[in-house]
Structure formats: C-alpha cells, structure tokens
Design a protein that fits this description.
Blueprint (H helix, E strand, L loop, with lengths): L1 E8 L3 E4 H5 L6 H8 L3 E4 L5 H16 L8 E5 L10 H9 L5 E5 L5 H14 L4 E9 L9 H4 L4 E9 L8 E5 L7 E2 L10 E2 L1 H18 L7 E4 L4 H10 L11 H4 L6 H11 L8 E8 L3 E8 L1
Parallel strand pairs: 4-5, 4-6, 11-12
Antiparallel strand pairs: 1-7, 2-3, 6-7, 8-13, 9-10, 12-13
Helix pairs in contact: 3-4, 7-8
The structure holds acetyl coenzyme *A (ACO).
The site of acetyl coenzyme *A has 23 residues, from helix 2, helix 6 and helix 7.
Length: 301
C-alpha cells in the first residue's frame, strides 16, 4: 500500500481554552497542563459529511486520480450525520466514484488505523486505489455543561488516497476490549447522547495497551510515531514506556484537541505539508480509545 496523497479539512470556528473558561468552571492553565490542548475547531455550518467531502476532493486533485478509478471509499467516524446513508456512500455519489464500494467504520479513536489496515488488505487483493478518511463532529456529542469532557474534544477531518504497490502488507496489531465498554460511551440511541467517560480509566488503558500494541510490532525503530492525539501526557507516557526519543512522537493536539478518527491523519497531513515526513520514512501509527480499542500499523511513506 502506498500513500499517494494526504489532505485535511477543518471547521472555520476556533474555540480557545479562554473561550471555554468564560462558559464553564475551567481555565487555560488547567487544560494546558492536564492535556496540552490550547484550542479546537468546532463545526457550525460544517458536518461530518461536508468535512469528509472537502478531504476527498483535495485528495483526488492532489493525486491526479479520477473518481472512477477508486475501488473503495472508507470513512472512519464515531459521529456520523446519519446512521444511514453513511458518509462514505454520500461521498461515493458526490464524487462520482461509480466503481467504488463505500462504507463507514466505527472504532472510535482507533478508527483510522483500523480503516487503513482494511484498505491494505483490499489493495493486496483486487483493489487498486481507494480513499481512507477520518471525519468527526464530536462537538455534537459533548455536554457543554460537563467540564471534564467538554475541554477535550474537537471537530475535523483528514485522510489519504492509497494505491496498491508491490510491498508486503504493512505489519498491524488491532485489538478490541469490549469488556471495558462502560469506560467511554457516547451517542446513546435512547437517553443522553453525550460523552460519559472515566478519564482515569481511559488514561490507564492507553498507557498500558498502546505500548503493548506497538511492542507487538517489533523493536525496529521508526522515523515517526504518530500516536492518537488525545492528551500530551498520554503520548509522553507511551514514549517513556517504550524508551523512544520524545522528538519522534510529534504533537499537534494543541491546535485541534482530540478529534478521534481524524487525529492521526490530521497529524500525518500536517507533517507531510510542513516537510517533516519524507518519502521512504517508516511511520508507526497508533490509535486507542472508545470500544475500548487499540490499533497500530507500520508503513513506509
Ligand atoms: N477544568 C478544571 N478542573 C477540572 C476540569 C476542567 N476542565 N476537569 C476536571 N477538573 C477537576 C476535577 O473535578 C478534579 O477536581 P477535584 O480534585 O477537586 O475532584 C481535578 O480537576 C482532577 O481531575 P482528574 O479527572 O483526576 O484529572 P486528571 O489528571 O485525571 O485529568 C483527564 C483528566 C485530562 C480527562 C485525563 O484523565 C485524561 O486525559 N484521560 C484520558 C481521556 C481521553 O483521552 N479520552 C478520550 C479517549 S479517545 C476516544 O475514544 C474518544
């Protein structure tokens, strides 16, 4: 699998920690110290679909690829606009991807890694080319009276256009922990749809299972470790457990907060755009969160 292009699309509205502190009992200092987040984007007119469409259109333009060449459209999201039709189906129609099948996939913050692994398997079979996009409007699932969760999340979308190449399947490690379902819930069909989270338990899960998952992929060093941008302290703890140089675990969550399935491709796109990620480099991607779920994958950019 080769990543041909990356792209991102963000809501226009920026909401700073200071903005939140005028609405709830919190402070810029608390949020920065506990999470590393400074601001996040919040969708006003944008939707999970419209953000994903912006990403898809950019990907096609950057790749010089026609929509008819796409074999699949995968959208990882835990905040779809509708249960059906999926964002992926709507993209397929809007792009004119007449030869593609399309589906949404929900593995919360591990969703992009899961979708990319699925894409790699499709490309190892009959498929030649496809889109993998993470898109979220998590602000819809936030109770703006709950400071413990409201400060953490943001909206956005990003993704990749991938093509088949002669390389073997990227090594991947995906694991699910359904027994921990109550640790993090959102989007209940009946009752309150808002995030309900045991923050401590998610923190402990992340710093236990993300290093374990990364370790199962072996000890060979990678150029960059793109870890789900949930919390700077979680990412630093993962790096310490694996004895990785901190500068190899980049952060961009200060600007976006936790964007769940969009967070890893947003970081990938930022780093491709600013030139830190170069062709030929080995990238480790690791997502973790709701489900609970964890997933890691190594690929050469
Ligand atoms: N502003 C100010 N004070 C706050 C806030 C806030 N926004 N939120 C909580 N507090 C208070 C608490 O009430 C508590 O006060 P008390 O000591 O008087 O009781 C104090 O701050 C400490 O609260 P803790 O919850 O113990 O703080 P902690 O250091 O554990 O940090 C956090 C909380 C940031 C949520 C942390 O546990 C964490 O990052 N957990 C992981 C969360 C996560 O990443 N979730 C997303 C998973 S991804 C997905 O699938 C969507």
């Amino acid at each position: 699998m080769q990543i041909v292009a990356t792209a991102a699309e963000l809501p226009a509205k920026r909401v700073t920690n200071y903005d939140l502190s005028r609405r709830m009992a919190t402070s810029d200092e608390w949020i920065r110290q506990r999470t590393g987040i400074r601001e996040r984007r919040i969708a006003e007119t944008e939707t999970t679909y419209s953000l994903a469409l912006g990403v898809a259109q950019q990907l096609l333009a950057k790749s010089h690829c026609t929509a008819a060449e796409l074999d699949f459209v995968l959208v990882a999201t835990m905040s779809p606009d509708y249960l059906t039709p999926s964002e992926a189906n709507r993209l397929q129609a809007a792009l004119g991807a007449t030869n593609a099948f399309a589906l949404n996939l929900n593995a919360a913050c591990a969703g992009f890694v899961y979708a990319l692994d699925m894409a790699a398997h499709l490309l190892a079979g009959q498929a030649q080319c496809g889109l993998v996009i993470g898109s979220e409007c998590l602000s819809r699932l936030v109770d703006w009276d709950d400071r413990a969760t409201a400060v953490l999340f943001g909206d956005g979308a990003a993704g990749v256009l991938v093509k088949a190449d002669a390389q073997p399947l990227p090594p991947a490690d995906l694991r699910s922990f359904g027994d921990l379902e109550l640790v993090l819930q959102a989007g209940a069909a009946t009752g309150r749809p808002f995030f309900q989270m045991n923050g401590r338990a998610v923190y402990q899960f992340a710093i236990r299972e993300a290093p374990a998952s990364i370790s199962r992929l072996g000890q060979a060093p990678c150029d960059w470790y793109l870890i789900h941008q949930a919390n700077a302290r979680i990412i630093e703890a993962i790096g310490r457990k694996l004895a990785l140089p901190p500068e190899r675990l980049p952060l961009n969550l200060a600007n976006y907060g936790n964007t769940s399935a969009a967070s890893i491709p947003l970081l990938l796109n930022d780093m491709v755009t600013d030139g830190r990620i170069q062709r030929g480099q080995r990238l480790l991607l690791c997502g973790f969160g709701g489900g609970l779920s964890v997933g890691s994958l190594i690929l050469t950019y």
